[in-house]
Amino acid sequence: MNVMGIIFTNDASIGELTDKRTMASLPFGGRYRQVDFALSNLSSAGVRHVGIISRHNYQSLMNHIGDGEEWGLELEEGGLEFLTPYAQSVTDTYRGKLESLSSAMDFLEYGADDELVVMIDSAILSNVDLTDVLNKHVESGADVTVVTKAGIANGVKKLDLALKVENGQVTDMMVDYAAPSEYVASMDIFVLRKKWLIQQVKEMIARDKFHMDRDLVMGGWQRGKVSVNVYPFKGVAMFNESLEEYFRNSLALIQADIRHDIFHYNHPIFTKVRDRVPTYYGETCDVENCLVADGCMLEGEVKDSVLFRQVTVCPDAEVEHCVIMNDAVIGEGAELKYVILDKNVTVTPGAKLIGTKTNPIIVKRGETV
After folding, report:
1. How far apart, in Å, are the Cα atoms of 93 and each of 11, 62, 202, 236, 241?
2. What pLDDT shows up at residue 91?
């Protein structure tokens, strides 16, 4: 069974962290980018023909992925293709995933051997066995399989697509709505037959319809034209669709059970290789309950935090409940609580940055505070 993968980089904004990068290239977990999860899931399922659709701020993403070697998707072998902007729309962004697929029609139609398409968004992170998803889709005979997660819908969080499932059958759908807890949330992973998808995209665009969730899945299901299968995912799914969620999910990786689930050894999450020296723990340092990458210099106090590569924490500095990205320097005697430091940030000696659990302070890349 030949399968094509489509990754949407998600140009949505979660504040300063996505000012100059897509959601797909947002650093996560000490050494990864969010796109690593989609790429690794596809690679583990043997998918070698992958297109990455991005419209804005994709340079850092291209630098990170390079030729795709870490995921077995070398560019020179035609396995990976960056589908950068050539939208037919006059708007600044694609009006929906169907429009972005229409703009990538040459890629979709290339490769006659591909029977199925797996579409994955970059804002929801998981370690999902796509081989099982693909098999269950074929067994169902449905037009669309949606990977879902229970426990996300709570009547407060707005969901792109929520489904009500009774006795294994979809009985209701909602889009762009804070669905109640009896609904399951779409993880923005869809499996479809390629020929069917191409035809549907062409027909939908011709009818001025652009949205995957609203127009194709829910609209087609309501009209009785599209059959929908649900694949319930049991593992950890991290919805990083807001700054608060990103911050909470980043610190959740400190918990061993969550970390082991999302980085499961049977389906490893690959990333760009960057060899660094081991982290140095100075005589005066106090590090407790942290996730620490390589290359750090730690001489202060760090608790309940995630530190990326080559972070420096000087003596007498205090860091608690923070996410500190690559090459940040925290000066002597500085105090940080509930803070996100982007790459190459310098915190001057004695500085004090105090945020809250739901409203962390963000310092932009390269700034000095």
Report:
1. 8, 19, 19, 30, 18
2. 44
